[in-house]
Amino acid sequence: MSQRDFDLTHIRMPIPRPTRYKGQGAPQNLNIPERKRKEHAENLRSQLQKLEQSIEGLRQERQKAGLEDVDGVLITVKGAADFDLTGERLRDQKQNVEVMIVGETERNEPFAVLRLGKGTVKSLADKVDKYETEIDKRSGKPRYNTLISSIDSIRESLVKELWTGPLELLPAQEDTLNWWEVWLYGGIEDPQLAQRMRLQFAAFAKREGIEVDIEQRIEFADRQVFILHASYANLSNAVSYLDSVAELRPPSQAIRDVHVLEHSTRKDFDNAAKRVIPPRGTAPTITLLDTGLNHTHPLLEPAVLTNGLHTIDPSSVSTGDYLGHGTRMAGVALYDDMSAHFLSAENYQLPAHLESVRIPLDSTDDERRLWGKTLSDAVYLAESMDSDKRRIYYTAISGTPLTRGLPSSWSATMDQLCFNQGEKPRLIAVAAGNVTTFDISGYPSRNLSSQLHDPAQARNVITVGAITDLTEVSNPVPGYEIAPIAGAGQLSPHSTVHIPKNDAIKPDIVCEGGNVGWTGEFAEPTLEGLSIVTTSERFLLGDALTTVGGTSPATATACRMMAQIWEANPDLRPETIRGLLIHSASWTNALRQQFPNKRDLLRSCGYGVPDVQFACKSATSAVTLIAEGMLRARHMERVPTRRKGQWKWIEHDREILVFDLPWPDELLRSLGETKVELRVTLSYFCDPSPKHTLKAYQGAGLKWDLQGPHESESMFIKRVNLAEREAGENNFAGANDWEIGIQARSRGTVQSDRWAGIAADLAVRRKLAVYPVMGWWDGNKTRYPVQDIPFSLIVSVISEDVTLDIYNQIDVPVPVLV
After folding, report:
1. Burial of 574 from C-beta contacts in 10 A (0-12 / 13-18 / 19+)
2. In contact, 711 and 733? CB cutoff 8 Å
């Protein structure tokens, strides 16, 4: 879009009046085994009786051990191999039965771990009795038929069933000490319960000789996470004797993943430093959560905030860079093209202020660290100096993807930091992580089999992968042939991808991450010309610049772009800044040719390469409209009943917003066959809950949909909202003409898509709906009675004809952004 003049402010859209919404639940096609009713009921009842006896014996053992206050117990309900188990239906709030884990054994047997808070199997036994003796009037089948028929066995839980990490990482030796990540019951939503669970576990740990610091923890809605040093036998006793252990995982391990030259490039940078103009006072701040910063580098010092250098490194009070990574990333975050700045005679205004928090990476015992806690401590330390700054957090610290793309305590903490209880959300950019082995024959297949590093799978962060346009080696050695592995505009050989199916699109975007050279025998990952030029931590020794490669500098570039977008649009919310960055992204032709399979393209490159000019401003022929609003995802109210002193919960209608897009109808119709592109992006932050059950990860979600080209307004509204339909109205179908499609785009907290067609067809597509999707808030009505989700909706129409003036033909009843 470089032929256009992007110098017009984006246009604000008004928020429409919300209306009543009713969603359409997904059909459940469960595979439940056929049972002989009486025989099956007797079998389960016998197992429950044996379990009750075991629980009574456990109570006596607890009394002997001084654990009389522990009244709950963990049990495992297992289904038949290759059949479904309706584990979530076992939850019973009245009987204090909680589903802790839903999983599958290596023999394809589904199972659920339950916490019986009252230490009784009465809730299950009652359901088995009703299954045997009562008939459901609606279905004509036994009561609780789907639930009870899905159960094969019921018994006490084992350590193995609480382990949710890769099975091969479960410690095999009973008495060998290992580091564990222990998830306990209780969290933010019930502080008293959480404290009781912590103290219970701490007392038991002390008796068992287990090393644990309960003050070093991460808390989620109803879980709390600790690191401890213990044996398999220790944890087996904890699972048996306590009712506080909810889950066991391997702890995250940070990777030193830095690609840099062994030497630095010497250049005279005095003149370049003189041409640097400090950032404006109103500019955003890029906060580096990295290895520290050598802040007196002449090209960096003008951007460094007063009181902007911090450390959480217990080994030193220094805020300096002990590894070099932070100083190098600072240069990429501030300068679009360092080489061009040195060659140019023009002044350069820095786009952002700099702040640094030094993170300790050089520990030899890094398994001891709870990385989500470490990063959150760094964020809180930076904000303790000034909580009102517009910050963009940068982190390339990453760990082995032990959860294989599923939420971890680390990634969920990053999501929690972004969400921030719905108040003052944060922008956090996370590097996708790097491939460590290169060869020209293994590219890009090796990339496609290399999972994003933890915590890059986080939903609310901006996950950044790498692309490259660097294909020319600087100062090649005669007779020493080196070819770049990637072609111009292709995926960087450094970049990892998101492997899990049916998950959010990750990475979100790709930015320049450098190339890798190939000699015919081995790889050269840090060659000049194929790598990014940046500031060196060794500048006092005369080395002003060095080079870097990988997803770390790609992430620093994304931070710079967000700073530029925020500086151009200072009144926009963080979710809008994130949305604009991703909304502006496109795939290069080289990427489309490299990954003709759309799923491979999305999981390796996300939405593509951002266009910062398009993100910052509109043009006459490329217009962006923005709506920043709030949508009520649920509303429960506690009201009195007719009986004195008794109360009940009633559910009010959820809301849907239907926007009337302000297209210039006459202009679009008059353009006829002129090609246009429509882009729509919805951005919001979710409330994470990473516990290992079938419940949704997010408290609630949002989706958007647009009126189809052959769909009337009333038919569209009925399609997306059951509350608008008459009895018997069904079989509504939306348009299947989007580049990504509603299923693939709707799994994350940024949902972006593109449509290309003719202007006349766009003129009739005026209605756009934003509506809620249920999540784990729905199972917590007493603690989350009313929940509103802030969101940003971004809509752009782009004409192929760059001379066309669409911008001044759009009429909205509110002024444009100032």
Report:
1. buried
2. no
Q: How large is the C-alpha radius of gyration of the chain?
A: 29
Q: Six-digit token pair at 394?
A: 């940068």
Contact status, residue 353 vs residue 282, Cβ threshold 8 Å = no
C-beta separation of 61 from 241 below 8 A: yes
The two three-digit tokens of residue 740, written as one number: 């990504």
Q: Write the burial class of residue 767 (CB in 10 Å: 0-12 exposed, 13-18 middle, 19+ buried).
A: buried
Q: 60: Cβ–Cβ under 8 A, 6 or more apart, which residues?
A: none
**Can you tell me the distance from the alpha carbon of 150 to that of 302, in angstroms, rounded to the nearest whole number?**
66
Quick check: 534 pLDDT over 60? Answer: yes
* Cβ neighbourhood burial of 190 (10 Å; 0-12, 13-18, 19+): middle
Nearest CA-CA partner of 611 in 569, 564, 549: 564
The pLDDT value given to residue 62? 86
Q: What is the mean pLDDT of residues 459-477?
A: 92
pLDDT for res 1: 63
- CA–CA separation, 551 vs 394, rounded Å? 12
Q: Which pLDDT value is given to residue 541?
A: 81
Output the six-digit token pair for 32.
């439940």
Spatial contact of 714 and 248, defined as CB atoms under 8 Å apart: no
Quote the DSSP letter at residue 746: T
Q: Is the pLDDT of residue 460 over 50?
A: yes
Alpha helices (H) in 595-725, listed in sequence order = 598-605, 612-616, 665-671, 713-720
Q: For residues 419 and 503, what is the distance between their CA atoms, to the nearest angstrom?
A: 19
> Measuring CA to CA, which residue among 116, 145, 140, 118 is closest to residue 130?
145
User: What pLDDT score was predicted for residue 366?
Assistant: 52
Distance CA 220, CA 691 (A): 9
In this prediction, residue 489 carries a pLDDT of: 97
In the chain, the largest separation of any two C-alpha atoms, in whole Å, equals 94
Helices (H) and strands (E) in the chain, counts: 21, 37
Which candidate, 695, 690, 693, 719, places its Cα nearest to that of 705?
A: 719
Q: Is the peptide bond before 507 cis (omega within 30 degrees of 0)?
A: yes
| pLDDT single digits (tens) 754-776 | 999 999 999 989 999 999 998 88
CA 716 to CA 127: how far, in whole Å? 43
Share of the chain above pLDDT 70, in %: 94
Residue-level length of the chain: 818
Peptide bond into 110 cis (omega under 30): no
DSSP letter string, 477-507: PTT---EESSPTTEEPTTB-B---SSS---S
pLDDT recorded at residue 642? 74
pLDDT digits (tens, 9 = 90+) for 616-666: 999 999 999 999 999 988 777 777 777 777 777 777 778 999 999 999 988
pLDDT in tens, 335-372: 987 877 777 778 999 999 999 999 988 555 555 789 99
Phi, psi of 553 (to 5 degrees): -65, -30
At 165, is the pLDDT very low, low, confident or very high (cuts 50, 70, 90)? confident
Q: Exposed/middle/buried for 222, CB within 10 Å: 0-12, 13-18, 19+?
A: buried
**Cβ atoms of 297 and 356 closer than 8 Å:** no
What per-residue confidence (pLDDT) applies to 26? 61
Give the C-alpha separation, 90 to 77, whole Å.
9
- In angstroms, what CA-CA distances link 470 with 372, 510, 523, 595, 686? 34, 14, 16, 19, 37
> Following CA atoms 563, 569, 571, 574 in sequence, which dihedral angle do they give, to the nearest 10 degrees?
-40
Provide the 8-state DSSP code for 272: H
Whole-structure pTM value: 0.92
DSSP state for residue 69 in the 8-state scheme: T
Q: Please compute, for residue 348, the number of CA atoms within 13 A of its CA located in the half-sphere on the CB side.
A: 25
